[in-house]
User: Fold this.
Amino acid sequence: MVVLDDRVRIRTRAGRDVARIVPAIAAAFDRLRPRGAAAGTTTILDVLLRAPLPGEDPNPGLAAATGADLIDLPCSSGHDRTSAPLRARIEELRGFEVRERDGLRVASAFPGLAADVLRQANFAGAAGASALLARREGSPYRPGLRTPDWRLFSAEPGCELVLCGITAEGALVLGAPTAHGLVFGGTTWPTREWRDLAARCREGAPAFEGARIWPSLGPIAWAAPEVWVRVRRDERPGAGTGGPSWRFVRCQEDLSA
Assistant:
């Protein structure tokens, strides 16, 4: 969140001001601060900092950010805009005089079905965007809340597996479809989303035998193999050595409706 009033503050999700770490980007935002009659009023921008492309920086970090994309406008010159529909906030956002040479740009936004955009992104491959933020055009801005009106679809490498059970500690037991049937696909570290996932499942019989599952994860509540989840490889030191090897990303949604 970029706060513009008597100065520039670039706040992370944890509330830390990192403007001094990215001085060039902060200077670019300083040009957008309210001036004249609006001086001293507050403008708040929802912003994504752009990271270097893979291979450009061997040690990417916040200080290596190359610019920023403006994606929303919760407050404009002291006026609360959170209740305004998204389409109105985006239109007002496009009125800001951002300059690409300063590293700032208004994020591309266009109407369309999420399923169509995802197909186009997959077709574009490496030339396409790394993620898609799908938002309902009439949705308000809800700070700090997860809402079905906003969905993030990342292009990060991952895998789609079937949810076959949930352990007492909240780890997911996963299955991988093969030509010879369902086989054990690994487990995740315990996830906070296990209750929501359990609500989607129907009780089922054990999907496979002899799976290497840590006893410390507790008994398994087996589920009918009907729910697909997206996971990514757990690359932390020690992961995959006789224990969980995946990290939960999301439950796959049907985008055709």
